[in-house]
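Data card: per-record layout.
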Amino acid sequence: MFHQSVKLKRAYESPAANDGTRVLVDRLWPRGVKKTEAAIDYWMKELAPSTELRKWFGHDPTRWEEFRRRYAAEIHEHRDELDPLRDLIRQGAVTLVYSAHDEAHNDAVVLREILLRHR
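The structure for this 119-residue chain is written out next.
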């Protein structure tokens, strides 16, 4: 049940009623997306990869495994920042919103994996 309550969605997709609580998990606001149309309930910048890691990764799929490892290490150092997000998930469906074009290789994918592994 827990895994079904954590969804992923690009910021450029229209919000839907079944999204539940929409949480933006990028450090930067998605380019060209109006805040009024994004329907973001929470912007958890602190859960996003560091600027240095984001720039190093550059959405290069050949760096994916190393990005996952480094990002997980960053999250591990700031575990307590996951607590508010875990509380939201316990209350109902949560959609992690991200802006990357690559739906398989982005920080929201890693964050979801971490949440599901350590629920």
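Known properties of this structure: Helices lie at 35-38, 51-57, 64-77, 83-91, 107-117. The chain has a mean pLDDT of 93.

See the next section for split statistics.
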